[in-house]
């Protein structure tokens, strides 16, 4: 009461019917907005959630080898591999490989050659252009690339999903458990953007444009050699179906050329490391240094790392059984009706990239991160239209962010779970 008058809450006075009407108006305007605005609205909402989680954990962070206690956002976003990207952006790559003495034997130690140059040099260019410090520049590049990845991913899934399902696929992409990585100083969001663009160009059969994005991706993150295999399978699929889907001679030649060049580019970084250091196995030995803490130093034998990892995590043979079950379940998922809604080329990418990981990667807590390029499979999870299913999936994604930051990103003492 004021001056003898009773004031009324205009929202309460409006009543529930008016509130529902306003909500419907807002939703109607959102549906009528351009597709890119809807995608960016989802992206911004997801970044608010991830930023809140990262700030909460930063406030709980003790003093570590990377940061002081309770670091600011930029410092917290630069830990783990972000520190290696900082080294590359400021100092470049070493010409002499560091060596560690293990029982009288010298082995290559961890060093910057494990990280490819596009992201750190792009951040360096932005630093020089704006005068920004590495954390701010790195986070800016990552977030912009992530927004671009969300937009391109929408264009990708819109080719085979209705509008609502395509937006839900984008929501899964933006709110995914590892989506906080898209706003720290990691190369993941830039790589996802380039992979999404390459796959979109492949579906559009714009092979030369695909080669351009694949070339940049080849020096952003490892794994693009898998795209060369996709192109070989793509060639075979188009040739097999040439009667119903013409495969002219010019396209046959272009696909072969692009496949060969993509394969060469996918294997080029080890050659660059060899030329720069004079050590033919510089890149391979550098990568092997990261698994030495688990199984010691050794040679890279394709398709044995996952068996070694399974035995390390679950000794006594149970790990191999677990690995076999995981592979079978993944294969069954690829054969499911949901996944079969995806274009053949996206399914081929999922198979090829999974084979690449089985060939070279050692499973540990970073496994979840290296699985991120399988993001086209999110399109399969967007096929069911049940609201209960979709809400539950998004809730699991948000909870998964908290769990992943707690176990993998947040550093609490002697942390052995790198992201």
Automatic annotation (TrEMBL):
Compartment list: Endoplasmic reticulum membrane
Name of the protein in its database record: Mannosyltransferase PIG-V
Organism: Frondihabitans cladoniiphilus
Functional pathway: Glycolipid biosynthesis; glycosylphosphatidylinositol-anchor biosynthesis
Predominant place of localization: endoplasmic reticulum
Topological type in the membrane: Multi-pass membrane protein
Transmembrane segments: 35-60, 126-153, 160-178, 184-203, 210-233, 253-276, 312-334, 346-362, 391-412
Annotated keywords: Endoplasmic reticulum, Glycosyltransferase, GPI-anchor biosynthesis, Membrane, Transferase, Transmembrane, Transmembrane helix
């Amino acid at each position: 009461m004021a001056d003898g008058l009773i004031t009324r809450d205009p929202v309460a006075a409006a009543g529930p019917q008016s509130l529902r009407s306003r909500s419907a108006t807002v939703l109607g305007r959102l549906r009528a907005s351009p597709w890119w605005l809807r995608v960016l609205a989802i992206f911004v909402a997801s970044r608010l959630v991830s930023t809140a989680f990262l700030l909460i954990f930063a406030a709980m962070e003790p003093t570590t080898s990377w940061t002081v206690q309770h670091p600011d956002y930029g410092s917290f976003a630069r830990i783990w591999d972000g520190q290696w990207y900082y080294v590359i952006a400021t100092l470049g790559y070493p010409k002499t490989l560091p060596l560690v003495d293990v029982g009288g034997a010298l082995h290559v130690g961890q060093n910057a050659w494990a990280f490819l140059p596009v992201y750190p040099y792009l951040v360096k260019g932005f630093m020089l252009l704006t005068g920004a410090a590495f954390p701010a520049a790195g986070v800016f590049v990552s977030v912009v690339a992530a927004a671009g990845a969300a937009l391109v991913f929408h264009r990708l899934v819109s080719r085979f999903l209705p509008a609502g399902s395509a937006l839900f696929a984008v929501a899964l992409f933006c709110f995914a458990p590892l989506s906080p990585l898209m706003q720290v100083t990691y190369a993941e969001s830039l790589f996802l953007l380039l992979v999404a663009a390459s796959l979109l160009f492949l579906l559009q059969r714009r092979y030369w444009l695909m080669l351009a994005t694949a070339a940049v991706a080849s020096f952003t993150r490892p794994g693009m050699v898998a795209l060369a295999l996709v192109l070989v399978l793509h060639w075979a699929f188009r040739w097999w179906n040439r009667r119903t889907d013409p495969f002219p001679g010019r396209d046959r030649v272009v696909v072969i050329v692009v496949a060969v060049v993509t394969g060469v580019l996918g294997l080029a970084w080890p050659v660059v490391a060899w030329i720069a250091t004079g050590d033919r196995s510089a890149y391979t030995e550098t990568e092997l240094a990261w698994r030495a803490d688990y199984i010691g130093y050794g040679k890279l034998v394709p398709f044995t790392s996952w068996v070694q990892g399974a035995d390390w995590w679950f000794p006594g043979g149970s790990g191999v059984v677990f690995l076999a079950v995981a592979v079978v379940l993944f294969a069954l998922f690829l054969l499911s009706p949901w996944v079969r809604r995806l274009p053949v080329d996206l399914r081929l990418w999922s198979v090829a990239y999974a084979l690449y990981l089985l060939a070279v990667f050692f499973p540990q807590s970073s496994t979840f991160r290296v699985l991120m390029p399988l993001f086209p499979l999110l399109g399969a999870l967007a096929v069911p239209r049940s609201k209960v299913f979709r809400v539950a999936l998004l809730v699991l994604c948000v909870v998964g962010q908290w769990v992943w930051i707690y176990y993998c990103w947040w550093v609490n003492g002697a942390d052995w779970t790198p992201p």
